[in-house]
Write a structure and sequence with these properties.
The complex is a heterodimer. In chain A, about 60% of the residues lie in helices and about 15% in strands. Chain A contains 13 helices and twelve strands. Chain A has helices at about 1-40, 50-80, 85-120, 120-150, 155-160, 165-175, 255-270, 275-320, 335-400, 405-435, 445-460, 480-495, 555-565, and strands at about 185, 195-200, 215-220, 225-235, 240-250, 440-445, 465-470, 475-480, 500-515, 515-525, 565-575, 575-585. Chain B is about 20% helix and about 40% strand. In chain B, the strands form two sheets. In chain B, strands 3, 4, 5, 6, 8, 9 and 10 form a seven-stranded antiparallel beta sheet that branches. Chain B has a three-stranded antiparallel beta sheet with strand order 1-2-7. In chain B, a hairpin with a 4-residue loop joins strand 4 and strand 5. The radius of gyration of chain B is 22 Å and the shape is globular. Classes of the chains: A alpha+beta, B alpha+beta. Chains A and B meet through helix 1, helix 2, helix 4, helix 7 and helix 8 of A and helix 1 of B.
């Protein structure tokens, strides 16, 4: 159940990006649809929703990508694990997205281009031109027919012979003479209709037209019908007459002509702006595709993160192991090859930890064996003078009891002295062996060093103390008492090494090993230094070059530092002095 | 931060500004020059508008008409109430917006120019002189004036004109997004309605 929950939680960032990807695509599709709709309605594009698409959305996505790139560069400069791999993966995914989108773009633009060229090819243009020309020819033919007949010499004769007759007679004669004429109306001087004939749709409704001069009248459109008319004034027997003749064009002629004209206009525009429009299509494609490409880049970043996470965890864990931390384990809920690698790594570290524990146990046994030997050796040293003194007293008592008085006191003194020495030896051993578990608290390391220096500064006037870089405020979790003992022992060793005359330098600085921060404290003396023959034994119990020393001081120091998770070592140059270095872990001391 | 040394930061800032300016500039390309003169008279509840277009691209339009294309002028007219708004800050309240379209084409059947007027009427003229006389101006267009929700009458009219030398068909109108040569646009002209204070 927990594993399922963890898997879902791990997928959340990736799923969020997928959702964002879907939203961006939906937004692009909606906006593009809106734009195309606005275009078809002839709206002004700058007042549509283009602006958010072309400006705000890409800018927001671009900002997110720039942030990711800057973070990546910062990680690279800091040497964060997995950065180079992440850069390579991101570049790979980005190029993949680009390489797949470029052919699509070319294909889409070519498709639009080819479609337009095939739809609006030369044949269509010729057909449209032909259609318009035919319409025009038909129209002009009808108009010319009207004009010619109106100006024909036979028309006055036909009219004069029809006057006084019936409309049917008039129309029969006129349609016989000019079959193309659709209607005819003859008015007298008072605009009163005298004769008429033909399709009533062609009759004029407004008598004011009769006041016009001879010639073609404006074309009239009534519903689907277009009517061409011509007007002619005559005079018979000093009486003026007006003849109006019309040709009714076929139903829908005007509408079809208009559609043809419009279609030809569209065709000509597409031909005229073909090249420009192709560039515009490319630009629009870029506008719509750019945000999608940007979101692909963001997904590339996220994918790269997801892929390198186990590798980064492995790298970090390897460093921790190299630093000696065998407790680290990598958690993984994947079931892929990388998780198998992580499992193997965890098993390897467990084995290493087990081996190290065994080695440490072996070393501990060996160390205690050595200590036991040393202790036995040290215990044997005072026993010899005790035995000798006791034997001397007994021998004197047996051979010369009178003279016993002379030797009894120095012999007993010698025994007591050696017993005292044994007592001291055993007490220090007890201290060393039963060093209590540190009780850690946050303590200012500079203050502890200062506290250790001050008594020696007072009691040893021949020794000069110099503090370099000893800054307060650097705190660590330590047992104050034990740490004070460490610094006191080191300063005591330094003072004794210089025979109370010289300079002791105390320094502190911050160092970083891997990802761990340490405070490094140095105690340097100007004594004779440690000979190369003794360097390997400096921290061994009971090793000392001093007559009064027990040889446990530096062993105790090393033990305390070890218990605090730190490290201690020294550098020495005969004739110039010795420097002891202590690194204390600031994070988990 | 180590990477934010001054020269690099300045360079990045400038590149960013250039990019932003480019995008902004591209998305709001200025239209070519077109000016208009306008006046307004009040007649009862109506406003009578007279608009003249100046710097009208006659040659371009004539060429388009002779090539068989349609040409169009679009007037956007806004009726406003301008006055003190929230905290006395001057504000404009849009009461009405009218889009008026006037188009012209060459009628090759009748061999004359046909003008479709804003009020829906059609006029045919035979010469370019007559065409431009009618086409590039709108005289005495009656605009009814609505009252503001506050009951106060409008006191300002804004007019903007757009000229399409060739009235582009869809989807060629996409081209106007990238270039202003296909659609000339004037700046907004503000007229104060007589008889109404600001």
């Amino acid at each position: 159940m927990n594993q399922d929950y963890g898997s879902v939680r791990r997928l959340v960032p990736f799923l969020s990006l997928i959702v964002l990807y879907g939203m961006v695509i939906a937004l692009v599709l909606i906006l593009s649809q809106q734009i195309l709709s606005d275009i078809s309605q002839g709206m002004n594009l700058t007042e549509t929703l283009v602006l958010p698409l072309t400006l705000i959305l890409p800018l927001a996505l671009l900002g997110a990508i720039v942030y990711q790139i800057l973070a990546l560069l910062r990680d690279r400069r800091k040497g964060k694990p997995g950065t180079s791999l992440k850069i390579r993966l991101t570049l790979f995914f980005s190029f993949t997205a680009l390489l797949s989108s470029v052919p699509q773009a070319i294909l889409s633009v070519n498709f639009v281009d080819t479609t337009m060229n095939s739809w609006f090819g030369a044949n269509l243009g010729e057909a449209l031109d032909g259609g318009v020309k035919t319409s025009l020819a038909y129209y002009h033919d009808k108009a010319q027919t009207l004009k010619n007949f109106a100006e024909s010499r036979s028309l006055p004769t036909l009219l004069s012979s029809s006057l006084g007759g019936t409309s049917d007679h008039f129309w029969d004669r006129l349609s016989e003479a000019a079959p193309a004429i659709g209607t005819a109306q003859l008015f007298d001087k008072n605009a009163r209709l005298i004769l008429n004939g033909g399709d009533p749709r062609g009759f004029i409704k407004n008598p004011l037209i009769l006041q016009r001069m001879d010639g073609a009248l404006p074309k009239e459109n009534i519903q689907d019908v277009s009517i061409l008319r011509t007007l002619k004034h005559f005079s018979f027997d000093s009486q003026p007459y007006t003849l109006v003749m019309a040709i009714i064009l076929p139903d829908g002629f005007d509408e079809v002509s208009n559609k043809l004209t419009r279609a030809r206009e569209t065709y000509r525009q597409l031909q005229k702006f073909n090249d420009t429009f192709r560039s515009v299509v490319v630009l629009f494609y870029i506008i719509f595709a750019f945000p999608i490409f940007l979101i692909s880049l963001l997904i590339a970043f996220s994918l790269a993160d997801d892929i390198i996470r186990p590798v980064v965890n492995l790298e970090e864990a390897t460093k921790r192991v190299a630093e000696g931390d065998f407790s680290i384990r990598i958690l993984t809920q994947n079931r892929d090859e990388l998780s198998t690698l992580v499992g193997s790594f965890n098993a390897m570290v467990s084995e290493l930890e087990l081996s190290r524990t065994k080695i440490q146990q072996t070393e501990k046994i060996t160390a205690w064996q050595e200590i036991a030997q040393q202790l036995a050796h040290e215990l044997r040293n005072p026993l010899t003078p005790i035995k000798l003194s006791a034997e001397r007293i007994i021998r004197k008592y047996r051979t010369d009891p009178v003279a016993l008085e002379k030797i009894i006191e120095p012999a007993v003194h010698a025994i007591v002295h050696e017993v005292d020495r044994l007592d001291t030896l055993l007490k220090e051993f007890s201290d060393f062996a039963r060093l209590p578990t540190p009780v850690k608290e946050l303590a200012d390391l500079a203050e502890l060093v200062e506290e250790a220096c001050q008594p020696w500064e007072v009691s040893e006037p021949g020794v000069t103390f110099r503090r370099e870089g000893l800054q307060t405020g650097i705190t660590a979790l330590v047992d104050r008492k034990q740490m004070l003992q460490v610094f006191t022992n080191l300063i005591k060793n330094a003072v004794e090494a210089m025979n109370g005359l010289g300079t002791i330098f105390v320094r502190s600085s911050l160092v970083k090993k891997g990802y761990t921060n340490y405070c490094r404290i140095q105690v340097q003396d100007t004594g004779p230094g440690i000979g190369s023959e003794n360097r390997d034994r400096v921290f061994n119990p009971y090793f000392t070059t001093k007559k009064a020393g027990t040889g446990l001081g530096l062993s105790i120091v090393e033990r305390i530092i070890f218990d605090h998770g730190g490290s201690i070592w020294f550098e020495s140059q005969p004739g110039f002095g010795t420097t002891f270095f202590i690194d204390l872990n600031l994070e988990k001391a | 931060m180590p990477w934010s040394n001054s020269s690099t930061t300045v360079l990045r800032s400038r590149l960013g500004l250039l990019l932003l300016a480019g995008l902004l500039g591209w998305s709001a390309l200025p239209a070519a020059a077109l000016n208009l003169e306008a006046s307004v008279e009040r007649k009862d509840t109506d406003a009578l508008l007279t608009i003249h277009l100046i710097d009208f691209p006659r040659d371009e339009v004539l060429k388009a008409l002779s090539d068989g294309f349609r040409t169009e002028i679009v007037y956007t007219i806004q009726v406003l109430r301008r006055g003190p708004g929230f905290l006395g800050i001057p504000s404009e309240e849009l009461l009405q917006e009218r889009i008026l379209k006037v188009s012209a084409r060459w009628d090759q059947f009748e061999n004359e120019y046909q003008i479709s007027l804003a009020d829906g009427g059609q006029v045919s003229v035979s010469s370019p002189g007559l065409l431009f006389g009618l086409y590039t101006q709108m005289v005495g267009f009656a605009l009814d004036l609505p009252a503001a929700p506050s009951g106060l009458p409008p006191n300002q009219i804004k007019i903007r004109a757009e000229v399409w030398p060739i009235k582009l068909v869809s989807p060629l109108t996409l081209m106007t997004f990238f270039s202003s040569e296909y659609r000339l646009q004037s700046k907004w002209k503000t007229l104060v309605l007589p008889g109404e204070g600001q």
